[in-house]
What we know:
Blueprint: H1 2-25, H2 35-60, H3 64-84, E1 100-107, H4 123-131, E2 135-139, H5 145-150, H6 158-164, E3 167-168, E4 176-179, E5 183-185, E6 195-196, E7 199-200, E8 205-206, E9 209-217, E10 220-228, H7 236-245, H8 254-292, E11 297-302, H9 310-316, E12 321-322, H10 323-327, E13 335-337, E14 340-342, E15 345-350, E16 353-360, E17 371-377
Parallel strand pairs: 1-2, 10-11
Antiparallel strand pairs: 1-17, 2-4, 3-4, 5-9, 6-7, 7-8, 9-10, 11-15, 12-15, 13-14, 16-17
Amino acid sequence: MKRILKILGYVLAVITALLLLASAMSGYFNPGRNVLLTLFSLILPYMWVATIFVLVLLLVFRQWRPALVVAAAIVLSWGSIRLVSPITLFRSHASETDRKLTLVTFNVRNFGIYDGMQKDINPNLKYVLDTYPDVAILQEASLTRNHYESLPSIKPLLKELNKKYPYRSHGWHDVIIMSKYPYRFVEQELKWKGIEHGWDQESDHRVYFAKVFDVFAGDDTVRVIGVHLNPIGLSMKERTSYEEKTRMKNMKSMEQNKNNLRWFYRHIAKKLKQASVKRVEEAKELRDVIDRSPRNVILCGDFNDPPASYVYRTIRGSDMRDAYVDCCTGPAITYHENRMYFKIDHVLYRGGLRAVSSEVVKQGDSDHYPQLITFKFKN
């Protein structure tokens, strides 16, 4: 019995260690080469939780050497693990006298305009107004001037919106800014390869947006870059099918699982790879914008890619910090629909700023949660 337990312990430890290492290292390689790289980067948070469970299980059964194998994999993977599940023991704090900047980034899913989700008071815009950050960067924000005047769920908030945010832009399934401070729209930073102002001429569909604003916050100027990178582009039918096929009752038999995998590779994997290739190009463009930018930069929005992924690493480079990593402990979720639970919205920054708080807030009725970040200006 001891011999069988020992063999099982090694098998479990080796499989767990290899999967963790593959997930952790996948973000160092261009995902355009293999769709598995994209899949492994997505499952890293889940693989981390599974690894902790396996490690505890091995220790309970006193499988010391297999446990060492798993522990070694954790050590080798820690650089990636800390991005998806940070452990922040010491973080910066702001005093009453410190100059601060609060920011909300939120994919508002067009304020429910196209999804039959209109309510008496729009919950996504209301969250922003109630929170009242210095700057709000909203993605998929279909608030043209016409919407302000015609949408029943927006009308009751219009007076408050005009009062609180005298400086704001408009969009159409776009990235917009709402600011307490004056800003300058840096139009020359919109010359993307193949996509002008987020418009994909071939598919006639808006899929990628990036807007650059210089916000004049008192004596400081902060370049705020709002982004919405290329999505996977799943149809509603594919999302519903994915949700149905991942129910436990539909994963009970080997034959069902084989059919589910075939369906996944036929309908999802190809789109995952295509979207990843596009996001890599977008990430390189954004990295160039960061390199051309002044000292104080905040880049935030919907990456459609998890932390530690190749796209995330490309944009972050060696000079940007992650507000969530600097302030929080444990994994987080920002996208939460169709049984897809991932952190794909990020806030990166550099310069004379330091994040002192970062929070994923479960508010609104979008498929994304908003994030609220407070920065202090360093002397």
